[in-house]
User: Fold these one by one.
Assistant:
Number 1:
Amino acid sequence: MQASGRVLVCDSIDQAGIDSMKRAGLAVDYKPEIKATELVAGVKGYDVIIVRSRTKITKEIIDASDAKIIARVGVGLDNVDVKAAEAKKIRVINAPEAASTAVAELAIGLMISLARSIPRADAEAKKGNWIKKELMGTQLSGKYLGIVGVGNIGRNIGRMARSLRMNLIGYDPYPINKEFVGETGMIVTDLDTLVESADFITCHVPSTPETKHMFNAARFAKMKPTAYLVNTSRGEIIDENALYEALKGGKLAGAALDVYEVEPPTNKLLLGLPNVISTPHIGAQTKEAQELASTVIAEKVIQILRGVI
Ligand code: NAD
């Protein structure tokens, strides 16, 4: 069955989703560089607006549009004014599971990078500095991994970490999937106990008023001085100034960050520390995750326009 409608794609997305929407009969305009002002003026007449991370769908854009669907090719909906969309009865959709393997693999990579100082070893070796004696690392096997937020990504990294023979501790204010807990032997506990006990902590929570600065000076004070913190979720959950002080004061051994309170990050002091590893929000940045997110969104758009879902 064919679908009909006009689709405006405002950010760069994988071609696979664009191709399937066209095959289904949709008229797709691909404008990955479109500016906010052009969008307010040009959004009328489109049934579907598709974004990734660059474009912010504000109330002003929503008020100017007569769209039926706003779609985010990704997990969170931070760049869409969902309330304004719902007030106009616009369906807001995303692709929540598409990036979960990519993000979990990055978090594992960051943990190993911290434990073995891989970025520093690489930089020094390339400068001709043989600093082997300074690079005594630590193993992941047998260590306790604290997973904060045991949703799609948290469970994925939990399974990967079990295959590295790590022990799991988990915290989530909502019930954690029982099958997963049984399969991995995760010890489910409160956040402070997790923070006090874990050798590695990895965060996989959404950005909400409750999670803002959940990692602050008081929490860093509870961490083992040998522990490492990895954040591939949302920057707001860490008080970056407190993290800087805690790392300087030896409250924890190191941190790896893919996300920041402000992006690109402005906290040069924090990023300048030798025990901080920084990546530019690349959690979902794999060919496979982008292709999956794009095709999942295309399929949902087609089904909604056909009236199937
Ligand atoms: P999810 O919704 O499947 O899981 C989030 C979990 O956090 C849920 O189990 C929820 O109950 C839990 N949670 C909510 N409030 C909490 C709190 N106060 N304390 C502890 N846990 C809490 O989401 P997901 O797909 O696993 O994504 C997790 C995070 O990763 C999101 O913030 C998402 O935006 C982020 N993410 C980042 C990238 C990247 O590029 N770095 C890519 C994809 C997703």
Number 2:
Amino acid sequence: MLALTVRPMEAGSAELRRVPEPDVADGAILCETVAVGIDGTDEEIADGSYGEAPAGREHLILGHESLGRVLEAPRGSGFATGDLVVGVVRRPDPVPCESCAAGEWDMCRNGLFTERGIKGRDGFVSERFRIEPEFGIRPDATLGALAVLTEPTSVVAKAWEHAELVAGRASWTPRRVLVTGAGPLGLLAALLGVRRGYEVHVLDVVEGGRKPVLATDLGATYHSRGLDHAGEGFDLIIECTGVGPLAFHAVRHLAANGVLCLTGISGAGRETSLAVDDLNRDLVLGNRAVVGSVNANRRHYEAAVRALAEADRGWLARMITRRVPLKGALDALDRHEDDVKTIVEVAT
Ligand code: BGC
Ligand code: ZN
């Protein structure tokens, strides 16, 4: 079958190649791939700065934001031919650590976890893939191909859950929230924030194009003139840019008891000077917290499924701004101006 592969840590190695059919070791459910979303992690892997091939192999099949349609599923697996399925990205480490043993592989303590399309396991940009029944998620059937947004939504569902858990350590109610970044993660974080009843503000650098429209159509307030113009005193901030200087500047925009949740993975290796004593004082005197959040476990995928099922279909459809066929999958790795989410469409 045809697949988009890379040789991890080798820039420019992405190519479309013929590969063997998916290995039964990947799971008892065989799917035809419907669509796969592309994100910054895929771009970094293609740039040669991230990723790991399966043990003993040179190539990795790229793509972790999956949507497939079941071709074959064993009886009793909970899935039947024709069902839509989204594959969970991470697999618990083999030890397993305390978190992985509890089904919280997103909180793995020893780093020995694997991730489909990222770390030690093939991903989904191929004609077919396999998945274990226990790592298959059933999206809302009426979403159709829009269910490809389930994985990125699961990542922000976790971020909200964790931000609220930290905020919930004392009896006060967060109301005003800021999402930094109006890329797919930021916009999906804003969708979930509005759904939770918050007053949502979204910050990005672009002044025009699709992002401000998508944010304001949710009922959020869009800001493009920098953090200092976006306001002070946010109760929760979900950071979705991965821009280190912005992430730490955001601490100064938290209200007392506020929580800043970092979800962006920065690749740039920037250094900057920080007023560390002021930062320390703000955190201590305001009971403020900064928390990192990565990946998602089943609970977060399920929260994502519920949120997407209730979301406006037209808005979700406008999030997908570029669709490329499998044969053109290499193009999906090049970012175009005003792209929000690019997907590789395999079978529709
Ligand atoms: C994926 C996560 C993954 C993370 C780090 C993100 O793009 O959505 O599932 O844990 O990259 O590899
Ligand atoms: Zn673990």
Number 3:
Amino acid sequence: MRVYVLNGPNLGRLGTRQVDVYGVTSYADLVTGCEETGRELGLDVVVRQTDAEHEMLGWLHRAADEEAAVVLNPAAWSHYSIAVRDACAMLRGPLVEVHISNIHAREEFRHHSVVSAVATGVICGLGVDGYRLALHHLAQRASPIRHSE
Ligand code: DQA
């Protein structure tokens, strides 16, 4: 099963960006971790990051066309991009929204995500481990017996 792990603006700076909030794992390490988890779970994981909204929309359209599963950290777009939400609403596979930080414990403008209402589920506040948990969920969902623990 193909899973796109898509990351929005500024997430390419992980490891140096506000380490008190986002931790010390670099974006490169996040990519490696997702790929390794994908291999363990038998998922075909593709990890991408962009600071350009139109590029993200193109990736989401492609995931919709392929009926692929998506793990999405929409980053700041979570809080205002109706275009990203609309593209997410077109997905035909499951969508797990991930936030590294607990957006509900931060500034008020981060408390609401316009994406959450069209997501299958949301993981937030568990650090980069949220990505691994999202992939485990998708594997379990696709093949409940093989991956049950
Ligand atoms: C984030 C939270 C957002 O509020 C923020 O704009 C981000 C990252 C997170 O992973 O915690 O860029 O999505």
